[in-house]
């Protein structure tokens, strides 16, 4: 195998592949990057078992300045290979397998010899049938993930909760994430040409890496689903992820249908207030803030407290307030994450009781976007 390629183009095009490679894998060859030179171009693959990413660098694309002199395959240690390519002096570099999986990398006056591994020992990519595909815009996928995935659990004691639950029925896509203390639910309309119904759970980590891989959010992403794998195709990239096994808990019943106290806020101004209140709450062991709602005086006051440091009290500025008086305590970090997901919009907070979960909804899109937070018992 021997090829020459533009160095910057190569670095840009392997970024997605690099995301899938972990230094902590129990399979040594997966710490490497697989390079396969074909007549079409250079196939670059990385995997950590959970995620596999393959990118095709096309020979016919003039920007790549790719010339393949001979075909072949090699697996190179990803960390060293990546560092070497970034430090090379020239605009181009040449890579050639010389003998016994040794690789010669040359650029300008610089020359590296890197020990590789036999590509035949690299695990095969998952097999996913691509005849029956869904197509979703990268922008919608990015929005869906950024507005929900932070509510997924990071604890492995309940693996199913570390994923994002996706249900597709007709032209509606419903995404739900919960760690049992908070919940994020988002509905979007898609074009489901095959009208198939899907119910699957994708690891949150996989989706976070997926949306980071989108260099162009105006493109479409083709999605293929098998029994235990999902494949996303975009640009010249194939992004595989395993699916989580098991039944996701029924979350519909967690969302209250009625409320006794309602507040309306500008999301950004409320976020700023909660950030200030949480400064001292973080210094406390329990990390809790308290919200006191006084409907008659149209006031809402947030308190943060740390016995070692001090206290903070701030009168909030709701644009509307109605219902019954209430005093409730909660983790401020959960509220901050929820408010960031809403961005710059008007939201409504709805409460039922001091120890019952409360919800946040954008006023303009309340049916399709709900965040739920469980309060903290402080007595």
Automatic annotation (TrEMBL):
Keyword annotations of the record: Cytoplasm, DNA replication, DNA-binding, DNA-directed DNA polymerase, Nucleotidyltransferase, Transferase
CDD domains according to UniProt: beta_clamp
Residue intervals of the DNA polymerase III beta sliding clamp central domain: 136-249
Subcellular location, record wording: Cytoplasm
Keyword Hydrolase among UniProt keywords: no
Keyword Protease: no
GO biological process: DNA strand elongation involved in DNA replication
DNA polymerase III beta sliding clamp C-terminal domain span: 253-377
GO cellular component: cytoplasm; DNA polymerase III complex
GO molecular function: 3'-5' exonuclease activity; DNA binding; DNA-directed DNA polymerase activity
Primary localisation category: cytoplasm
InterPro entries linked: DNA_clamp_sf (IPR046938), DNA_polIII_beta (IPR001001), DNA_polIII_beta_C (IPR022635), DNA_polIII_beta_cen (IPR022637), DNA_polIII_beta_N (IPR022634)
Segment forming the signal sequence: none
Pfam annotation, one family: DNA_pol3_beta_3
Cited NCBIfam families: dnan
Family membership noted in the UniProt record: Belongs to the beta sliding clamp family.
Annotated function: Confers DNA tethering and processivity to DNA polymerases and other proteins. Acts as a clamp, forming a ring around DNA (a reaction catalyzed by the clamp-loading complex) which diffuses in an ATP-independent manner freely and bidirectionally along dsDNA. Initially characterized for its ability to contact the catalytic subunit of DNA polymerase III (Pol III), a complex, multichain enzyme responsible for most of the replicative synthesis in bacteria; Pol III exhibits 3'-5' exonuclease proofreading activity.
Assembly: Forms a ring-shaped head-to-tail homodimer around DNA.
Name this protein carries in UniProt: Beta sliding clamp
């Amino acid at each position: 195998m021997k090829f020459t390629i533009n160095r910057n183009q190569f670095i840009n095009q392997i970024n997605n592949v690099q995301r899938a490679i972990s230094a902590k894998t129990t399979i040594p060859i997966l710490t490497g990057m697989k390079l396969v030179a074909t007549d079409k171009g250079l196939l670059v693959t990385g995997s950590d078992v959970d995620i596999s990413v393959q990118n095709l660098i096309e020979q016919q694309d003039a920007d790549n300045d790719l010339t393949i002199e001979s075909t072949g395959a090699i697996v190179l240690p990803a960390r060293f290979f990546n560092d070497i390519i970034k430090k090379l002096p020239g605009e181009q570099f040449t890579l050639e397998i010389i003998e016994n999986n040794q690789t010669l990398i040359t650029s300008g006056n610089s020359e590296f010899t890197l020990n590789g591994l036999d590509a035949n020992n690299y695990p095969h990519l998952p097999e996913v049938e691509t005849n029956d595909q869904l197509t979703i815009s990268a922008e919608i996928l990015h929005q869906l993930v950024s507005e929900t995935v932070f509510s997924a659990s990071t604890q492995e004691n309940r693996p199913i909760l570390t994923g994002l639950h996706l249900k597709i029925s007709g032209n509606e896509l419903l995404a739900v994430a919960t760690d049992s203390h908070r919940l994020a639910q988002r509905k979007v309309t898609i074009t489901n040409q095959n009208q198939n119904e899907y119910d699957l759970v994708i690891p949150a980590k996989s989706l976070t890496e997926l949306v980071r891989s989108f260099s162009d959010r105006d493109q479409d992403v083709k999605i293929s689903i098998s029994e235990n794998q999902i494949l996303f195709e975009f640009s010249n990239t194939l992004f595989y992820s395993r699916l989580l096994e098991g039944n996701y808990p029924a979350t519909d019943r967690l969302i209250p249908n009625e409320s006794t106290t309602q507040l309306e806020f500008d999301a950004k101004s409320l976020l700023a207030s909660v950030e200030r209140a949480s400064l001292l709450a973080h210094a406390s062991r329990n990390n809790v803030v308290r919200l006191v709602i006084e409907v008659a005086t149209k006031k809402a006051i947030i308190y943060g407290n740390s016995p070692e440091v001090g206290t903070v009290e701030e009168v909030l500025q709701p644009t509307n307030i109605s219902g019954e008086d209430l005093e409730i305590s909660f983790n401020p970090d959960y509220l901050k994450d929820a408010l960031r997901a809403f961005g710059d919009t008007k939201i409504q907070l709805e409460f039922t009781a001091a120890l019952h979960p409360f919800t946040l909804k954008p006023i303009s899109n309340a049916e399709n976007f709900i965040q739920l937070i469980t309060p903290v018992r402080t007595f």
